[in-house]
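Severity: low
Component: inverse-folding endpoint
Summary: output formatting inconsistent between runs
Steps to reproduce: submit the following structure tokens with default settings.
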């Protein structure tokens, strides 16, 4: 958080301070540091022997404050121009995703699949630059047209890669001159997504997939989602399906899904747990996702059990599983079973049915069942704040007060549901009301008039942006998911990725129980997504949180620039000091930026920015 000294200087000098003033300030700061150092050496004995610990604590805070002021002023005077020198990255980084450098990971000795996993510690120290769009990049089509047609220049897929892909991909996609068209789900295809969804519904005892919500299925984790067609269909049924797929340098499933405006994030089942708490999803879906589920002593299946809610479903479509099942049933009855069958029994899962290559298991609603299965121990403690921890060979969530079968939930969360998350219902509903009002203000502020030569607040005569102006929003500090709820209530054609920052109060279980998409993330690190994948970024209080974590505001804004599409929007809400610092950096990153005073008597400010469409 910016110190009071620097805040005062920022207020006095709305523009960059003159050199003489900066030199004067630097001399003063150096003198103060010297005085403090001498005081420290002369009074050390008395401080050390003092019985009042506040003396030393206050001194350390003051010393840190002075040093921070010095570093801030020094960066303005000596290196004020270095931020301006942030240029564009080379062409090789047009689709750059930090933390996923397979070559570097291999050189460090990572193997057995871990070289494909997330390793941010090996990506640090990279030079600052702006990831530019490809030469043929075009602004995506608005929803819902953009769901079925994307520009081929916006994703990394060559014609040769398309021609060499499997038959299923060719049936789902049509590569034209400069577009990739996805087959509309009109039911004409024998193996269509709609037929697949209907089959799943029938196998779990429903008449059609339109009854998923009534059966308690609101959130779906789609592993290895292909190009997102299944998730897109579920989204049309008002379910939230999040695609999770491994990082791919080209032809990426996650990049394709996000380019279509569908929820997706990079993640894989190799060595680490997914960044979700236990009991997060009503259904986990894997259609030929390439994972050998019974390998590694069943660790992958245990991870599925961890994120599944009681009574949730695991859907597996795999020709390999069918072959194993056929081999088992062709033998004498009771003489053998597949390893997958054996392990699911240890997890207290029930096989609901099999049709062709599709299998469906249901997780038990009886938490005591696991105690009788001595082969897999119960985890000690809760895993609320897990963040890419190693896969664990134990059962999670059985002692949680969130152990509620999916069939027992219906409609929005009530006061009892909210209290389960140790949240005050009054605070929750007050927060909801705040975001309804804030969204109305945001939508009016996003009028391009705010970036005209004579910016003003849009009046009633000014047209508002269309309801489908943005396809997706990332709420980078989501709290209870209030912005997401306000978007839904206002019938905005948008889905929200709710991010709960590591180190903040972990409200992700509450967000997921509301049926929203969400993820835990450390904003001192890059986000697991491809460049240009979000239309709008929103953050309330994140700048102050980043400062409290001793992380770089500049690196945060550069990461935001990477994941924001050209002509996308940024709305930052914070106190005056962090907002002014971000405004200065935003102009150096080439964003069009305006600070808005809500005029409510507080020091809260809004920073509204737009990323330009820049080619170089």
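Observed output (run 2 of 3):
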């Amino acid at each position: 958080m910016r110190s009071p000294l620097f805040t005062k200087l920022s207020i006095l000098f709305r523009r960059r301070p003159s050199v003489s003033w900066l030199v004067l300030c630097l001399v003063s700061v150096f003198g103060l540091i010297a005085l403090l150092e001498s005081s420290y050496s002369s009074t050390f004995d008395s401080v050390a022997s003092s019985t009042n610990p506040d003396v030393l604590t206050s001194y350390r805070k003051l010393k840190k404050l002075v040093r921070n002021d010095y570093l801030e002023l020094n960066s303005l005077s000596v290196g004020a121009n270095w931020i301006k020198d942030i240029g564009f990255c080379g062409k090789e980084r047009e689709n750059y995703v930090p933390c996923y450098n397979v070559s570097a990971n291999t050189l460090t000795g990572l193997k057995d699949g871990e070289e494909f996993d997330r390793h941010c510690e090996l990506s640090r120290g990279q030079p600052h630059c702006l990831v530019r769009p490809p030469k043929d990049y075009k602004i995506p089509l608005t929803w819902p047209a953009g769901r079925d047609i994307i520009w081929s220049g916006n994703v990394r897929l060559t014609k040769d890669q398309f021609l060499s892909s499997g038959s299923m991909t060719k049936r789902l996609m049509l590569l034209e001159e400069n577009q990739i068209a996805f087959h509309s789900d009109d039911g004409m295809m024998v193996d269509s997504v709609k037929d697949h969804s209907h089959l799943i519904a029938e196998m779990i005892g429903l008449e059609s997939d339109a009854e998923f919500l009534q059966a308690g299925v609101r959130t779906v984790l789609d592993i290895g989602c292909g190009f997102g067609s299944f998730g897109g269909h579920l989204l049309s049924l008002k379910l939230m399906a999040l695609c999770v797929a491994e990082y791919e340098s080209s032809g990426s499933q996650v990049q394709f899904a996000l380019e279509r405006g569908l929820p997706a994030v990079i993640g894989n089942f190799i060595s680490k747990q997914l960044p979700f708490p236990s009991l997060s999803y009503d259904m986990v879906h894997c259609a030929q996702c390439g994972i050998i589920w019974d390998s590694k002593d069943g660790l992958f299946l245990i991870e599925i059990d961890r994120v599944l809610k009681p009574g949730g479903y695991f859907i597996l479509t795999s020709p390999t599983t069918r072959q194993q099942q056929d081999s088992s049933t062709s033998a004498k009855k009771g003489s053998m079973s597949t390893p997958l069958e054996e392990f699911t029994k240890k997890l207290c899962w029930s096989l609901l049915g099999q049709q062709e290559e599709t299998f469906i298991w249901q997780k038990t609603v009886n938490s005591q069942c696991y105690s009788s299965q001595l082969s897999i121990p119960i985890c000690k403690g809760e895993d609320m704040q897990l963040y890419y921890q190693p896969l664990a060979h134990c059962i999670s969530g059985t002692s949680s007060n969130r152990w509620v079968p999916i069939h027992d939930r219906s409609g929005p969360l009530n006061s009892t549901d909210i209290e389960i998350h140790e949240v005050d219902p009054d605070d929750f509903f007050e927060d909801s009301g705040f975001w309804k009002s804030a969204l109305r203000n945001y939508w009016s502020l996003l009028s391009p008039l705010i970036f005209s030569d004579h910016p003003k607040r849009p009046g009633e005569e000014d047209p508002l942006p269309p309801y489908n102006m943005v396809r997706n929003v990332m709420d980078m500090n989501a709290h209870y998911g209030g912005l997401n709820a306000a978007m839904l209530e206002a019938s905005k054609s948008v889905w929200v990725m709710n991010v709960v920052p590591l180190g903040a109060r972990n409200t992700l279980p509450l967000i997921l129980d509301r049926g929203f998409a969400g993820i835990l993330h450390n904003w001192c690190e890059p986000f697991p997504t491809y460049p240009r994948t979000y239309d709008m970024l929103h953050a309330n209080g994140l700048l102050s949180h980043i400062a409290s974590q001793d992380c770089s505001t500049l690196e945060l804004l550069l990461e935001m620039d990477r994941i924001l599409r050209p002509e996308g929007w940024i709305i930052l809400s914070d106190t005056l000091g962090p907002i002014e610092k971000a405004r200065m950096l935003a102009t150096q990153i080439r964003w069009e930026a305006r600070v808005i005073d809500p005029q409510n008597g507080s020091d809260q400010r809004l920073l509204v920015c737009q990323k330009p469409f820049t080619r170089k």
